[in-house]
């Protein structure tokens, strides 16, 4: 059974202008335990909403307007599923009045009905798993650095023994050196424990090293998804290609970055036809009138009229 | 690039006082910028790279004359402006910050944010509007944008307005403190290109402050790496990236991957420490350094020249 199967998923938010579609007709899969799927996109593309929908954490003003989410074969809308989320801001995710130990042990006390002694024993093991010393049991969140707090969140996440992890920009608030350590730790842990993970990020370079498969989102839709080698070596969708050549690289000198004109469209005002067509350098007539569908080509999926 | 030195600092320092909770007595100092010697040639772009707490933004504020340095000298076009800032140089040094959302007053139209300061400076309203439009055109906007409020603009457009406002006083030296870190990648590319274009058009000199090494590599001629108030390595972009010498520079470069999954990414990163400790003697990086030796804990290394356009502050490269 597939760890994650999302089909034709649409999510809408209620605004003063009525229901606005933010995530539109998304198909994504995680095929194996321990597989990491990166969702890459710019702000407003719907990647965080997609993550919240999968985690069952959509706010009250949102609704699933179509499609389904299946986690290990169970429909997430009607069955209880265990999805853990790691957010960007670790300080906001931790209770400032409780020690780290209390917060992790709580999971064992309430979810697993352990005794206090057993719970704290497990807590120490989890801290060790994320590379933190025993003594952190008695520390408070404000006594920790940003990287250490994010490690505590990862410890809490694995303590829950989730079926799926959604990591939404887990390291954006951290310094680059700390970011590298935390990300590689997270990757190592999900691989070792065989937990499937959805990794949401705006950073292509990080996605190329952390994920097994990558899905690129634009204006609420997946425009290309493929294994990490194909997407970075042979990007097919014009948006993917443009994104890759518009970011400075650390390993080579670039004389000129590729410039995508204009700005990404906002939900509620997505253009007619292909949503990337107004910014696409190779758009032709059909692109402006007819919306492309996600087509399977070899091992990739592409939403573009060029590949038909 | 010619050899005229536009900006020069000699042992520039900025210390923040740390006061006790009770009685507010001064109990110590945070040495945010601790003896920075920097030379920026006219037309050059110097990238200041470092993590949070390295002092890079404080250095930017001091160079923008928004903070008074604690000690050291600051020369601009050969004139000492450490204490005084002559009227004739006003507006020649400008700074652009990271957040274009808080840089513009949300209750004022763009017109009022840009035109009013000019009127205060003695321009007539018509002249001021003409100058503003000219400046907006330079950054790819037009006169229609004068009448709108900041919330009606996108993040990229707001940053353009902020740049236009900075350009209006015809600056020679611009300090750019993470100007694109709040923008999306596609908008970032546009703003970077704009900055490159106006630099040539207006013969500007840039100090580009960033935590992103890839970005620094793209925009800068010279790279200076800061750690805990010190410049630990400085040199031409080619030298610093092809032959990084300081252990911290190597750590920083390895910390960020290239977008190519076939290149193995193995960051060499020492343990993190919750806060940088300020001890009396010794190298600031000693607590994290994988190559530290006995001397490193005792003596502060000097910034020494190891080649043409390449200096490093590390005992490993001391001439015996």
From TrEMBL, chain A:
One of its GO terms (molecular function) is ATP hydrolysis activity. Its EC number is 7.2.2.11. Keywords: ATP-binding, Cell membrane, Ion transport, Membrane, Nucleotide-binding, Translocase, Transport. It is a peripheral membrane protein. One of its GO terms (biological process) is peptide transport. InterPro entries: AAA+_ATPase, ABC_Ni/Peptide_Import, ABC_transporter-like_ATP-bd, ABC_transporter-like_CS, Oligopep_ABC_C, P-loop_NTPase. Its main location: membrane. One of its GO terms (cellular component) is plasma membrane. The keyword Ion transport applies. It is found in: Cell membrane. Residues 6-244 form the ABC transporter domain. It holds the Pfam family oligo_HPY. Gene3D superfamilies: P-loop containing nucleotide triphosphate hydrolases (3.40.50.300). SMART domains: AAA (SM00382). It catalyses: Ni(2+)(out) + ATP + H2O = Ni(2+)(in) + ADP + phosphate + H(+). It is an enzyme of class 7 (translocase). The complex is composed of two ATP-binding proteins (NikD and NikE), two transmembrane proteins (NikB and NikC) and a solute-binding protein (NikA). This is Nickel import system ATP-binding protein NikD. It comes from Ignisphaera aggregans.
UniProtKB/TrEMBL annotation, chain B:
It comes from the Archaea. CDD domains: ABC_NikE_OppD_transporters. SMART domains: AAA. One of its GO terms (molecular function) is ATP binding. Residues 18-253 form the ABC transporter domain. Gene3D superfamilies: P-loop containing nucleotide triphosphate hydrolases. InterPro entries: AAA+_ATPase (IPR003593), ABC_transp_ATP-bind (IPR050319), ABC_transporter-like_ATP-bd (IPR003439), ABC_transporter-like_CS (IPR017871), Oligopep_ABC_C (IPR013563), P-loop_NTPase (IPR027417). Keywords: ATP-binding, Nucleotide-binding, Transport. GO terms for biological process: peptide transport; transmembrane transport. Belongs to the ABC transporter superfamily. NCBIfam families: oligo_HPY (TIGR01727). This is ABC transporter ATP-binding protein.
């Amino acid at each position: 059974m597939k760890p994650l199967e999302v089909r034709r998923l649409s999510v809408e938010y209620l605004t003063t202008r009525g229901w606005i579609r933010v995530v539109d007709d998304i198909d994504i899969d995680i095929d194996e335990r321990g597989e990491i799927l990166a969702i890459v996109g710019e702000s407003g593309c719907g990647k965080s909403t997609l993550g919240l929908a999968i985690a069952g954490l959509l706010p009250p003003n949102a609704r699933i307007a179509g499609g389904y989410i299946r986690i290990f074969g169970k429909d997430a809308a009607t069955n209880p599923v265990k999805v853990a989320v790691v957010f960007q801001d670790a300080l906001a995710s931790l209770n400032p009045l409780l020690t780290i130990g209390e917060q992790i042990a709580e999971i064992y006390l309430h979810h697993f009905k352990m005794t206090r002694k057993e719970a704290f024993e497990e807590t120490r093991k989890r801290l060790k798993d994320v590379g933190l010393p025993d003594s952190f049991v008695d520390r408070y969140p404000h006594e920790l650095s940003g990287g250490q707090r994010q490690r505590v969140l990862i410890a809490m996440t694995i303590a829950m023994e989730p079926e799926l992890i959604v990591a939404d920009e887990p390291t954006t608030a951290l310094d680059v050196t700390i970011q590298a350590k935390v990300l590689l730790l997270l990757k190592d842990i999900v691989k070792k424990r065989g937990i499937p993970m959805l990794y949401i990020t705006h950073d292509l370079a990080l996605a190329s090293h952390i994920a097994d498969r990558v899905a690129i989102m634009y204006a609420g839709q997946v425009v290309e998804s493929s294994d990490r080698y194909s997407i970075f070596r042979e990007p097919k969708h014009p948006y993917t290609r443009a994104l890759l050549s518009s970011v400075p690289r650390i390993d080579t000198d670039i004389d000129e970055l590729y410039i995508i004109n204009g700005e990404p469209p906002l939900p509620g005002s997505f253009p007619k036809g292909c949503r990337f067509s107004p910014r696409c350098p190779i758009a032709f007539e059909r692109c402006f009138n007819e919306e492309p569908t996600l087509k399977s080509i070899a091992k990739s999926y592409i939403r573009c009229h060029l590949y038909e | 690039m010619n050899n005229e030195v536009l900006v020069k600092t000699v042992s520039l320092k900025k210390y923040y006082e740390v006061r006790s909770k009770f009685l507010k007595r001064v109990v110590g100092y945070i040495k945010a910028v601790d003896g920075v010697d920097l030379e920026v040639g006219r037309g050059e772009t110097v990238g200041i790279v470092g993590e949070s707490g390295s002092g890079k933004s404080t250095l930017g504020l001091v160079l923008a004359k928004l903070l008074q340095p604690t000690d050291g000298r600051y020369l601009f076009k050969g004139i000492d402006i450490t204490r005084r800032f002559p009227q004739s140089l006003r507006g020649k040094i400008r700074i652009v910050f990271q957040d274009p959302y808080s840089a513009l007053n949300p209750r004022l139209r763009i017109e009022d944010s840009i035109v009013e300061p000019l009127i205060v400076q003695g321009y007539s309203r018509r002249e001021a509007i003409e100058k503003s439009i000219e400046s907006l055109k330079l950054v790819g906007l037009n006169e229609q944008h004068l009448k709108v409020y900041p919330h009606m603009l996108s993040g990229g457009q707001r940053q353009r307005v902020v740049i236009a406002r900075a350009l209006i006083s015809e600056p020679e030296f611009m300090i750019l403190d993470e100007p694109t870190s709040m923008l999306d990648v596609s908008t970032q590319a546009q703003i970077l290109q704009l900055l490159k274009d106006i630099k040539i058009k207006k013969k500007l000199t840039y100090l580009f402050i960033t935590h992103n090494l890839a970005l620094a590599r793209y925009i800068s001629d010279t790279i200076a790496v800061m750690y805990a108030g010190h410049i630990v390595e400085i040199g031409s972009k080619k030298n610093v990236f092809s032959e990084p010498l300081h252990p911290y520079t190597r750590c920083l470069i390895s910390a960020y991957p290239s977008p190519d999954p076939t290149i193995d990414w193995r960051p060499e990163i020492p343990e993190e420490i919750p806060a940088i400790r300020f001890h009396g003697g010794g190298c600031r990086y000693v607590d994290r350094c994988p190559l530290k030796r006995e001397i490193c804990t005792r003596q502060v290394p000097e910034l020494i020249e190891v080649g043409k356009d390449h200096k490093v502050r590390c005992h490993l490269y001391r001439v015996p």
